[in-house]
Design goal:
Aspartate aminotransferase family protein; three-stranded antiparallel β-sheet; PyrdxlP-dep_de-COase; alpha/beta; 14 helices; Aspartate Aminotransferase, domain 2
Length: 451
């Protein structure tokens, strides 16, 4: 029987175009409750087949109001970009082609596209030419993979083979990391069996940058990994990588650059290329659909030692690049297609302009909210506080629906984080969002006064 592809895919395409074309005017936040979604989409386990077109229609209608419009130019929560047309189209094709991108033998085109895109990325960031690249799910697994390579290297230098002998009896590893690090570093260390007790927090300055003088006093005590940061998740601040690398000695230097690494295209990051590994997310400033993390390693042998696998039932070719040698997954989708398409469509100049424009929009936010701004706005992060009532104001903004920002705590203060990461964000989006922020602040304070 010939499958009916046209019916369900045609319905999905029509629904997708309605959604995408409606983003400029769409409410950003969700408008229905979990109970409402459960009632629409749930029910007993289906026992009989259903018409695929009806399934797609019911799904699209059932989730309406429960989708957060992260692709909107007025979504400023967390650090989430949108999706450019070329990357989204390539991601659709990746789903249709349904390649298992672990081995070259199983997916030659996917492997070669990743290899080509990897070379472009290394050149874009100005990393050493021999740098190896892995395509992973996001910043979490990028940090995990890089730190696995770091674990291998520092223990190998201490005469221990962690891949063979494990961690029981191994020399202890110290991980020196800024006090304002991202939690994915701690979580990666847990996954790697190192635990969070190995962490030595290094003092930071008022913007969250690691202080080299505080780092220097902790160096020289056995196998050591230094986790630096390019883009503090709250302030956007970048650690002084040149000074950190100069101090590092035999320590492995990893850079968590989930979004800040992309700023290297608009402003040089001194010392960036001197590190040993780097992590970033393509679904942030490159605006590639989820999921799309990237890990880079200046020491391919350590990268492969930590990740590679060999088995008699697999087909390996020493002249070809097997993607599973550079990431912790075995079977996975071919996420390199979307990255390739994004870079090919934008080029260096287009990516640079995208990053530069987001930074300009962040400065526009900061100028209009100046009395409330807590940070030096150098990248795309604007950190604001309205005092003790900040969490309630953030909730009001989210519920109003015009824009969406996320809350945080910064050095003991409740704050709101504005992250400008979307390629479609305009000055009009910023101005409209600022108006809503001001209105929510005024309304909250009026209620407090009346109460």
């Amino acid at each position: 029987m010939q499958p009916d592809w046209e019916g369900p895919l045609g319905e999905a395409y029509a629904r997708a175009m309605t959604y995408l074309q409606g983003l400029p005017v769409r409410r950003v936040g969700a408008s229905v409750t979990a109970d409402e979604l459960r009632a629409r989409l749930g029910g007993p386990l289906p026992h009989q087949p259903a018409n695929p077109v009806d399934v797609v229609t019911d799904l699209a209608e059932g989730v309406e109001g429960g989708l957060v419009a992260t692709g909107s130019g007025r979504f400023f929560g967390f650090v989430i970009g949108g999706a450019t047309p070329a990357s989204l189209a390539a991601d659709w094709l990746a789903t249709v082609w349904d390649q298992n991108a672990g081995l070259y033998a199983a997916a030659p085109a996917a492997a070669m596209v990743e290899e080509i895109a990897a070379g472009w990325l290394v050149e874009l960031f100005g990393l050493p030419k021999q740098t190896s690249v892995g395509f992973v799910t996001g910043g979490q697994m990028a940090n995990f993979t890089a730190l696995a390579a770091a674990r291998h290297a520092v223990l190998r230098n201490a005469g221990w083979d962690v891949e063979v002998d494990g961690l029981v009896g191994a020399p202890p590893i110290r991980v020196l990391v800024g006090a304002e690090r991202h939690d994915t570093v701690d979580r990666a260390l847990r996954f790697l069996g190192l635990g969070t007790r190995c962490i030595v927090p290094i003092a930071v300055d008022g913007q969250g940058r690691m202080r080299p003088d505080a780092l220097a006093s902790e160096l020289g005590h056995g196998p050591t990994i230094i986790c630096a940061q390019a883009g503090n998740v709250n302030t956007g601040a970048i650690d002084p990588l040149d000074e950190i690398c100069a101090l590092s000695g035999d320590a492995w230097v990893h850079v968590d650059g989930a979004f800040g690494l992309w700023s290297a295209l608009t402003q040089p990051i001194p010392g960036l290329a001197e590190a040993d590994s780097w992590a970033t997310d393509a679904h942030k400033w490159l605006n590639v659909p989820y999921d799309s993390g990237l890990v880079f390693c200046a020491h391919p042998e350590a990268h492969q030692a930590a990740m590679a696998v060999r088995a008699a039932y697999l087909i390996h070719d020493t002249e070809k690049r097997d993607p599973l040698d550079y990431n912790p997954e075995f079977s996975r989708r071919a996420r390199g297609f979307a990255v390739y398409a994004a870079i090919r469509a934008l080029g260096r100049s287009g990516i640079t302009e995208l990053v530069d424009r987001c930074q300009a929009m962040a400065r526009r936010f900061a100028e209009q909210l100046e009395p409330y701004v807590l940070n030096e706005v150098r990248l795309n992060q604007v950190l604001v506080s309205f005092g003790p009532e900040t969490p309630q104001i953030v909730q009001s903004i989210q519920e109003e629906g015009t824009a969406w920002m996320s809350g945080t705590t910064w050095q003991g203060k409740p704050a709101m984080r504005i992250s400008v990461s979307n390629w479609t964000t305009t000055a009009a989006d910023v101005d409209r969002s600022v108006e809503i922020v001001r209105r929510c602040v005024e309304n909250r304070r009026a209620r407090s006064t009346q109460g």
